[in-house]
């Protein structure tokens, strides 16, 4: 007959109170703290939309129309033989 004395039963505490607090409390703190942290980081996205741009800067950006075609015309005749990446 096999000896099952090492197997935990319902009345035995397989995990002591110390082990529960060692692993359980940090896990709960991670879950609750993560929820609050995620809320704060996701709120930044909505707050950034509400910020109004300076009217002078907005006007300057609307006046400065840069397109892909205009930039291509600037560098169309350039030679890139001695090109060096910075």
Distance between the ends: 78 Å
Order of helices and strands: HHH
Percentage of β-strand residues = under 5%
List the quaternary state of the chains.
single chain
- Unreliable residue stretches: none
Helix-and-strand structural type: mainly alpha
Tally of alpha and pi helices:
3
Q: Can you summarize the main beta sheet?
A: none
What is the total tally of β strands?
Answer: 0
Instruction: Tell me, rounded to a whole number, the average pLDDT.
Output: 80
Global Rg:
32 Å
The amount of helix comes to: 55-70%
Q: What is the overall silhouette?
A: elongated
Task: Give your account of this protein's structure.
The chain contains three helices and no strands. The chain has a domain at 17-75. The chain has 86 residues and is mostly helical. The longest helix has 34 residues, at 17-50. The chain has helices at residues 17-50, 55-63, 68-75.
What's the arrangement of secondary structure elements?
Blueprint: H1 17-50, H2 55-63, H3 68-75
Give structural attributes.
86 residues, mainly alpha, 59% helix, 0% strand, elongated
Q: Nutshell version of this structure?
A:
By secondary structure, the chain is mainly α. It has a domain at 17-75.
